[in-house]
């Protein structure tokens, strides 16, 4: 489990095509500290497994399913990525519960800078819109954010200077794809309500 609090802005240093998958080599001095084979690291919100670790770099295999359902397939050598290690038991939950299981992708539609923050508008797939509410939580490229405005096919978030400086959202321009993970609690509530309604018939 992750919290959506990005630990560092890493970089892809190599991409190896494996046919029905690919292997990324990524640089991240903070997340590789103490890393070992089999550990999980979230890369732009996608939970990946460490295959090898050497120095401040690690490799991770990405299946075709993940490449197709996330924005990782659009990345290449030199791409910057948000990195986060799983939260430790007993640690503070600084963001919200994030699984690292991408529900879909959106696209940066608009950026509106202000003096102390920036508002970003992001497209929202129709099948995810029911899980996104004003003042609710959403994960964008692995970043735990609060929804400002929720429309039928978009939502907006306000970003403070720290988020702009230390994550990929400070770099992405209109047209750029982003990974989205909705609040898992909303999905569980929906399933439970559907079950209870079905039992009452």
UniProtKB/TrEMBL annotation:
The pathway is: Cofactor biosynthesis; riboflavin biosynthesis; riboflavin from 2-hydroxy-3-oxobutyl phosphate and 5-amino-6-(D-ribitylamino)uracil: step 2/2
Q: What is this protein called?
A: Riboflavin synthase
Q: Which residues form the Lumazine-binding domain?
A: 1-96, 97-193
> One Pfam annotation, family name?
Lum_binding
Read off the Gene3D superfamilies from this record.
2.40.30.20
Tell me the enzyme class: transferase
Task: State the InterPro entries in the record.
Answer: ATP_synth_asu-like_sf (IPR023366), Lumazine-bd (IPR001783), Lumazine-bd_dom (IPR026017), Riboflavin_synthase-like_b-brl (IPR017938)
Each Lumazine-binding repeat occupies one of these ranges, namely: 1-96, 97-193
Q: What does this protein do?
A: Catalyzes the dismutation of two molecules of 6,7-dimethyl-8-ribityllumazine, resulting in the formation of riboflavin and 5-amino-6-(D-ribitylamino)uracil.
NCBIfam families recorded for this chain?
A: PRK09289.1, PRK13020.1, ribE
Positions of transmembrane segments: none
Q: Does the keyword Cell inner membrane apply?
A: no
Q: Which UniProt keywords apply?
A: Repeat, Riboflavin biosynthesis, Transferase
Q: Which is one GO molecular function term here?
A: riboflavin synthase activity
The answer to whether the entry has keyword Repeat is: yes
Substrates-to-products reaction catalysed: 2 6,7-dimethyl-8-(1-D-ribityl)lumazine + H(+) = 5-amino-6-(D-ribitylamino)uracil + riboflavin
For this protein, what is the EC number?
Answer: 2.5.1.9
């Amino acid at each position: 489990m992750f919290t959506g609090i990005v630990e560092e802005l890493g970089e892809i240093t190599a991409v190896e095509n494996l046919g029905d998958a690919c292997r990324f080599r990524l640089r991240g001095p903070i997340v590789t500290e103490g890393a070992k084979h089999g550990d999980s690291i979230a890369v732009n919100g996608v939970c990946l497994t460490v295959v090898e670790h050497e120095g401040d770099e690690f490799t991770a295999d990405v299946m075709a399913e993940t490449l197709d359902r996330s924005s990782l397939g659009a990345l290449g050598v030199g791409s910057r990525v948000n990195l986060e290690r799983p939260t430790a038991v007993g640690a503070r939950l600084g963001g919200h519960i994030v699984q690292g299981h991408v529900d879909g992708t959106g696209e940066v539609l608009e950026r509106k800078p202000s003096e102390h923050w920036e508002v970003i508008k992001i497209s929202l797939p129709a099948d995810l819109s029911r899980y996104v509410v004003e003042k609710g939580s959403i994960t964008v490229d692995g970043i735990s954010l609060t929804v400002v405005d929720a429309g039928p096919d978009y939502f907006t978030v306000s970003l403070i200077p720290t988020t702009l400086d230390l994550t990929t959202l400070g770099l992405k321009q209109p047209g750029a794809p982003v990974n989205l993970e909705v609040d898992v609690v909303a999905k569980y509530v929906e399933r439970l309500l559907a079950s209870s309604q079905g039992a009452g018939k």
